[in-house]
Amino acid sequence: MGFDPRQWPSAGRSTRPITSNIDALLAENEALRLEVQRLRRELANRGHQAPYREPSRQRRPSDAGSNTNTVWVRVEQVQHWGEALAQQRGWSRLRAGDEAAGLQGLITTINRRSFQPHLSLEQRLDHLAPGLGRDLQAAVAGPRTKKRLAVLAAFALYGLSAREWLNDDPRRVVEDLLRELDRMERSGASASRSRRTRSDQRASDRQSRDQHTRDRQTQPHDPRRQEAYRVLGLRWGSSKEAVKQAHRRLVKQHHPDMGGSAEAFRRVNDAYQLLIA
Question: Cys-Cys link to 232, which of 41, 154, 246, 276 (CB 3.0-4.6 A)?
Answer without folding.
Answer: 246
